[in-house]
């Protein structure tokens, strides 16, 4: 075991983030790791009993007691989800330190973690909304300055029919789709470096083929090499995060369904629609977990529970049920009076 007194916190945070980068998390995820580590580190360094600059904070100052106090102060103005995320980041950080022999054990088991239920799914509202969206985007809109319906359609179709996240869409290559006709699949690089294979039905396959053909016409055959990014912008460069978000928002506007998109969901509403329809059509939590690349079965189970609640609400709203309720209520009152 190395002498932990020789180690300062900040260089170890940098080493940890470098090690996590090999798993290919998004830049936003790495930035969130850094924010959580630095925020708690500052709170420990600023302890009024022994205040010191963060740069001088040594790893041996991170005891279970100091961490509990720091998390208590960190939690006061924050939501449970933010506290839980920070706890998980610090737990991973100490796991890294233990594995490298820098500290003898992980103190995070002594720090309480709030229980955060999975957020409710946010699919597109309206039974026919996904179909209306696809139909509107498949048509060339003369109001667009640079229309490319084949590209816009493939983005929406991959999200609605394969449940891909934004980062997963951007990471796709032309060669990510493979297999024999009838057995086509798309290989997806998911969160935490987890790779999954998603079946591609013939309808989605035709959309992808149509997009690649339109791409050849626009930019030439050399742009459809297997290692080329699957999704391009109108200049032929790989589509980026901001461009993809804007593209999806513009598709909603063109289809006239902005009022049916849950606030803050945007592209994720398409993924949630995919998962919700899986649950409605009878998929179990394990199947949903594999197709969506969830790390936890409880996240997948959430779609089934929400779907069951929606089905019960629909039955409850049935006019015949309400009539029956009035009948039973009047009969019960009559029976009570007798």
Count of spatially separate domains: 2
Q: Tell me, what's the shape?
A: globular
CATH topology label of the largest domain: hpI Integrase, Chain A
Give me the side-by-side strand order of the main sheet.
Answer: 1-2-3
Percent of residues in helices comes to: 55-70%
| Cα-to-Cα separation, first versus last residue | 84 Å
Mean pLDDT: 86
| Annotated CATH architecture of the largest domain | Orthogonal Bundle
Helix- and strand-based class? Answer: mainly alpha
Tell me the major beta sheet.
3 strands, antiparallel
Instruction: Show unreliable segments.
Output: 1-5, 331-338
CATH superfamily of the largest domain: Intergrase catalytic core
Provide the CATH top-level class of the largest domain: Mainly Alpha
Domain Core-binding (CB): 7-98
Domain Tyr recombinase: 119-316
InterPro entries: CB (IPR044068), DNA_brk_join_enz (IPR011010), Integrase-like_cat_sf (IPR013762), Integrase_catalytic (IPR002104), Integrase_recombinase_N (IPR010998), Integrase_SAM-like_N (IPR004107), Tyrosine_recombinase_XerCD (IPR050090)
Protein name: Site-specific recombinase XerD
Would you kindly provide a written description of the structure presented here, covering whatever features stand out?
This protein has 338 residues and is mainly alpha-helical. It folds into two domains: 4-110, Tyrosine recombinase, N-terminal domain (DNA polymerase, domain 1, Orthogonal Bundle), CATH 1.10.150; 129-316, Intergrase catalytic core (hpI Integrase, Chain A). 56% of the residues lie in helices and 4% in strands. The protein has helices at 9-21, 27-45, 64-75, 80-99, 129-138, 149-162, 166-171, 202-219, 241-255, 267-280, 285-292, 297-316, 319-337, and strands at residues 177-178, 185-189, 195-199. A hairpin with a 6-residue loop joins strand 1 (177-178) and strand 2. The protein starts with 8 loop residues before the first helix and ends with a helix.
């Amino acid at each position: 075991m190395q002498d932990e007194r020789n180690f300062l916190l900040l260089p170890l945070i940098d080493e940890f983030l470098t090690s996590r980068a090999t798993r290919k998390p998004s830049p936003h995820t790495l930035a969130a790791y850094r924010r959580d580590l630095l925020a708690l580190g500052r709170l420990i360094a600023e302890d009024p009993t022994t205040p010191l600059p963060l740069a001088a904070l040594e790893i041996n100052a991170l005891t279970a007691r100091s961490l509990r106090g720091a998390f208590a102060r960190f939690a006061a103005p924050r939501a449970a989800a933010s506290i839980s995320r920070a706890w998980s980041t610090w737990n991973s950080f100490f796991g890294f330190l233990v594995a490298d022999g820098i500290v003898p054990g992980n103190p995070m088991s002594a720090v309480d973690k709030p229980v955060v239920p999975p957020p409710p799914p946010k699919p597109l509202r309206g039974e026919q909304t996904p179909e209306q969206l696809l139909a509107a985007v498949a048509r060339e809109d003369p109001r667009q300055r640079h229309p490319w319906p084949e590209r816009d359609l493939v983005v929406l179709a991959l999200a609605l029919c394969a449940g891909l996240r934004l980062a997963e869409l951007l990471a796709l290559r032309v060669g990510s789709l493979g297999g024999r006709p009838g057995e086509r699949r798309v290989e997806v690089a998911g969160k935490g470096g987890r790779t999954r294979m998603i079946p591609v039905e013939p309808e989605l396959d035709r959309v992808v083929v149509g997009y690649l053909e339109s791409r050849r016409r626009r930019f030439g055959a050399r742009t459809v090499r297997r290692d080329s990014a699957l999704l391009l912008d109108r200049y032929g460069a790989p589509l980026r995060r901001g461009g993809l978000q804007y593209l999806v928002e513009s598709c909603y506007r063109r289809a006239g369904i902005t009022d049916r998109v849950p606030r803050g969901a945007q592209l994720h509403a398409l993924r949630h629609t995919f998962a919700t329809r899986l649950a409605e059509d009878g998929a179990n939590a394990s199947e949903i977990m594999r197709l969506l690349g969830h790390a936890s079965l409880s996240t997948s189970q959430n779609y089934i529970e929400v779907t069951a609640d929606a089905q019960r609400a629909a039955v409850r709203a049935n006019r015949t049920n309400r009539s029956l309720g009035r009948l039973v209520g009047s009969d019960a009152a009559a029976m009570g009076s007798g």
